Amino acid sequence: MKGSLLLATLISAALALSACATVKGVGKDIQSVGQAGSDAIHKK
After folding, report:
1. Which positions carry the signal peptide feature in this UniProt record (predicted)?
2. CA separation (Å) from 21 to 5, 13, 37, 38?
3. Would you give the DSSP letter of residue 1?
């Protein structure tokens, strides 16, 4: 029983950490696109 609980906890933690990394990556991508758009607008 303890082994199953430990395994479930580890799997949940791994999924949560990978989701955070994915969301963080998406945020950086959106920021990069925004910066490129801003640079294009201000460039003459």
Report:
1. 1-21
2. 24, 12, 24, 26
3. -
